[in-house]
Specification:
Helix content is about 30%, strand content about 30%. By secondary structure, it is of the alpha/beta class. The chain folds into two domains: about 75-280, Rossmann fold; about 290-530, Glycoside hydrolase/deacetylase (TIM Barrel). Helix 8 packs parallel to helix 14 (about 495-510). It is globular and about 90 Å long.
């Protein structure tokens, strides 16, 4: 028989358990129902705050730059016409806040502003060599860094001894050779070396790089960053075709790119490499954001029901809740990404299928638990305009009666977004798979972020681009497009097959490239805005066993991020900010004040002989 005291204790325990369960559930629902908009209290830059060329740098109080050479240079780009390389250089100058001058021909050294420190970039394929060799000689004599973003015709190089000497080319075995693969050496990009070579038959689907190139062999005083790979039993590694290299002659450095690597965003990382290799250090702004966008998940209309019942024995809503969502949450937990769910209210706006938004509350709770974010996918069946889709989504979300604010969108076509930008009022950013620019403002208050990788389509060119963007802007946006699982065309689109490819790529290829902080799309948007609005400069002073770098920041909000690359030196002390080591000689700097002091000292690592053509032991069994 239970005594009164024991009965009261049992009753009290049951009451406490019931209260805690009800209280936690109430808190759970309250969090999911909240506006969930932490950005309202922050100062968010807009298009009017962007840095523009020619804007004077605001030197922080207490800094005197009289007689001091600062880090940033004036970039002189020379090309006979508006080339794709110019687009790359322009984008790079805007992101790194460099002053850009464009010329159709090389000016005389005496015509250059003697108060500026120049870096000269040449689209050599567009300028006849007979017209520029005397000018380049004067630049090199005076210690100006010269970059051949493209090379002249092979015959022009072969027939011009002086040009070959400037480029450090000793042999041209062939005008065109087909290599087996491409190797990026350690130190060229942040994140270490990479080998793009088909080793196993299944790797052939990844190889989409251009393996045809002129065959140049460089002199002993050169340093190779990217090289074409050939059969080592037949060819000496020292004779492998050079793709990107530097030749040091006298008191200057000449860089050369063999191929079209400067004609796209891949060239951004190379430009930062050239600055880094021609300076004591490199320090420039980055976004520090890696977002993961889940397009068309979850769905709220029972569409394509016959195909889905055949594939999953469920309708679309049940499949999303019981199959898709648990798999995504598990993948996010294992691989460390922060998902932004781009829900789709209805795809075929012309169908009679009813849209039921009642599960939205459940999804918001689940998304909140993994620190994710909910946005809207603007996709729709062909025949419907963007205006139709936005109107439908607005009505559907309003009918759900939840105060959650949707700030982010996903869409495929940048052109349509620009034409209909006024319809997006109230949103902050759009992730776009077909964006022309890495970052842009659609309106004064809405940004567009480029999707940089597709989780379902790993390739060597995509890997190369990811490494370049890690080096140049510290940004990536990975798309996990779940539309095929809702509209499967064959068994490869079924969830168990399709998501296995996504999850496998995310946990291997894309995970090793994730060097920067995982963020939601809204967090990425805020950091992009801050980077676009800030200005900066830096200078270094010699100290015992190292240097003291002073970083000066203007604008950019309460915190901004920079990448510091040193030459075998380490950070020993920092004031005005924080740092994280992300590579052997690369550091992520978080600036919290407008003046940051960074002390770098010689590395304690033992110096080792490095043969640039030696395959690392951990890679030998793959080659």
């Amino acid at each position: 028989m239970v005594s009164r005291r024991n009965f009261f204790a049992i009753f009290l325990m049951m009451f406490v358990v019931l209260f805690l369960c009800q209280f936690s559930q109430a808190m759970h629902e309250n969090i999911s129902h909240s506006d969930n908009d932490e950005y309202e209290s922050l100062e968010i830059p807009s298009a009017g705050d962007m840095w523009v060329p020619g804007k004077p740098f605001e030197i922080p109080e207490g800094i005197d730059l009289t007689g001091i050479d600062t880090f940033k240079k004036t970039v002189l780009f020379v090309a006979a016409d508006d080339s794709e390389v110019l687009n790359t250089v322009t984008t790079w100058c805007e992101l790194t806040k460099q002053e850009l001058e464009v010329s159709r021909k090389l000016p005389l050294y005496s015509f250059l502003d003697q108060d500026k420190e120049y870096m000269i970039l040449i689209d050599a394929a567009s300028v006849p060599t007979i017209d520029y060799m005397p000018y380049i000689r004067n630049y090199i004599i005076r210690g100006i860094t010269v970059v051949f973003c493209t090379l002249p015709e092979t015959d022009d190089i072969r027939n011009d001894d002086q040009l070959r000497n400037f480029l450090g080319i000793t042999e041209i075995p062939s005008d065109s050779v087909s290599v087996d693969g491409i190797r990026i050496f350690d130190g060229a990009f942040v994140g270490g070396e990479a080998v793009y070579k088909v080793v196993y038959p299944e790797d052939k689907k990844y190889q989409d790089l251009d393996l045809e190139m002129p065959w140049y062999v460089t002199a002993e005083g050169s340093k190779t960053y990217i090289v074409g790979m050939m059969d080592e039993d037949e060819y000496d590694r020292e004779k492998f075709p050079r793709i990107v290299w530097r030749y040091s002659g006298g008191n200057t450095k000449v860089f050369a790119v063999n191929g079209d690597y400067m004609k796209g965003l891949e060239g951004l990382g190379l430009l930062d490499l050239f600055v880094y290799e021609s300076s004591d250090y490199a320090l420039y702004p980055v976004v520090n954001a890696a977002s993961t966008v889940l397009a068309d998940m979850p769905g709220f209309t029972d569409e394509n029901s016959d195909a889905l019942n055949e594939a999953y024995s469920r309708d679309s809503r049940s499949a999303g809740r019981d199959i898709f969502l648990p798999g995504i949450i598990s993948s996010a937990s294992r691989n460390g990404f922060v998902p932004t769910f781009m829900l789709i209210t209805k795809y075929d706006l012309g169908s009679d299928a009813a849209t039921d938004m009642s599960p939205l509350d459940f999804y918001l709770q689940q998304i909140n638990e993994i620190n994710g974010e909910a946005g809207l996918s603007l996709r729709s069946e062909s025949g419907f305009t963007l205006e139709d889709k936005i109107a439908f989504d607005t009505q559907a979300i309003a009918g759900a009666g939840l105060p959650y604010r949707f700030r982010t969108l996903y869409y495929d076509s940048a052109d349509e977004l620009e034409e209909s930008a006024e319809l997006l009022s109230g949103y902050s950013t759009v992730a776009c798979a077909g964006a022309d620019a890495l970052f842009s403002y659609l309106t004064d208050d809405i940004t567009c972020q480029m999707i940089t990788q597709d989780a379902a389509k790993y390739s060597y060119s995509g890997d190369f681009l990811a490494r370049s963007l890690n080096t140049s802007v510290g940004y990536s946006s990975l798309l996990m497009d779940l539309h095929p699982t809702l509209w499967p065309e064959n068994s490869s689109d079924y969830w168990e097959n399709y998501f296995n490819v996504l999850d496998s790529n995310v946990s291997t290829y894309w995970r090793r490239l994730a060097l920067f902080e995982q963020t939601t799309l809204s967090e990425s948007d805020l950091r992009i805005r801050r980077m676009l609005s800030l200005d900066y400069d830096s200078y270094a002073e010699d100290i015992n066993n190292g240097k003291l770098i002073t970083l000066m920041v203007s604008g950019g909000g309460d915190e901004s991020y920079f990448l510091l690359r040193t030459h075998d030196q380490k950070i020993s002390e920092i004031t005005g900010g924080e740092f994280t080591r992300i590579d052997d000689d690369s550091y992520l700097i978080c600036a919290r004040e407008n003046t940051v002091k960074i002390r770098i000292t010689d590395s304690d690592d033992v110096l080792r002989y490095y043969n640039p053509f030696r395959i690392p032991r951990f890679m030998q069994d793959q080659l």
